[in-house]
Amino acid sequence: MQSIFHKLKAYKTQIVWAFLLLAFLVEFVILISCNNHNDQSTTSIWLFICSMSLGILPIVFSKDFNKNAFSIQNPKQIAWWFFALFASIVVLCIYFFKMQDLIKHCRIDEHVSDIIPTIMQEVHRFLHHEFVYAPIIFDGYSYPSGYLPAIWFPFIAAETFHFDYRYIPFATFALLIIGILLVYKKQISNLSTFLSLVVIPLSLELFIANNNSVPHFSVEVLIACYYVFLCLAITTKNYFLIGIAISLCLLSRYSLALWLPLYFIVLLINQDKKLLVKIIIVIIIAIALFYVIPFLSKDPSLVIRGLLNYSSAGDGEWRRINQGTHLPEHLTHGLGFAYFFYVIKGIDIPTKIKYLQMVLLALIAVFLVSMSFIFYKYKNKLSTPIFLICSFKIYLSIFYTFIHIPYVYLYTVPLMVSSALIFYLVSAKKEDLIA
After folding, report:
1. pTM surpassing 0.85?
2. Which entry of 96, 154, 158, 224 is 20 to 30 Å from 327 by CA?
3. DSSP 3-state percent helix, strand, coil across the chain (nearest 5)
4. How far is CA 20 from CA 30, 222, 303, 407, 418, in A?
5. Does pLDDT of 240 surpass 80?
């Protein structure tokens, strides 16, 4: 028995990596097949376990990752970078041609989804010097305009040069992959780093192939690019890069604000006060220039209205019953725990949603306190880059599990963050992984 234990200990790193990759694979399979799930409860629980595991395992076994970085810098193996470049181009081309086919056969229609039509109105107003955040008006109904600037601002290019808005998320993703290839050129020097990079575009392509609503109805790929950019930026000491990445995320979704306290606490514990101040200055300037001064100063109620509109939309979605399942359409894909709250008997829908949101906030509070304590107590044993990117993954796992409208397209973000996490763990320089 003791000899078996010693053998397992000798292969501990390989076993940890096996579990990590298995967790990623299960999460990936659940997400790409979410439209075919029949067992909502089991699927959502497995998704939560695997998603959390991706963040927890590298922190718990941080020493093993520190000592066994995959990256091997060898000039003679530079061909792997060209292989990665070629594979990325192939996947991007497949994505592009599918986008073209989609655009030919699926027109933008506010009666099917109002996401892109809303962005179109906001961009049109901006270019014609109108107030962007006036109520959005469609045929027969109107609602408050709530999309933040980083969601609609990139689409100014599509409106200016008269091409389909749905090309913008693709173009942003292509730029992201090119940026990763250039920044991590030296690290992409073996089969492991090559495969981990290719996983990023490949996982997105397969997710889109199985969920056409992602490119057709939403711009979630654009937001996912911001989050991947943030994941890789927070592993550096570049205050400008980090500040811009955080600003892009905050100016697309408010939700990142709940994770930021942990990041700031980690910087303070590491005595990186100057870095923290510089990052905060960049964030303040960016948000002031692109949101507060041009928009929020004219209507201070924008933030509250946006949050209230999101809550009321949740109430409406919980009442849209699928005639086949006799359950709300978006609660039956196995992508969150909203279903468990919906089936609670004896309380109305607004109360169920309120309970779900209270549980989410309570879990995030527990997450912030516990992760801050863990880093403070074990900072000398933990790799800061690994801790940051993995804690971010854990936060997203909690947030997307307890989100009250688990639209399929929203899970583009946690999927791409998972693939970025795997890529970083495999490709990072060994000295960057040492605590």
Report:
1. yes
2. 224
3. 75, 0, 25
4. 16, 26, 38, 26, 10
5. yes
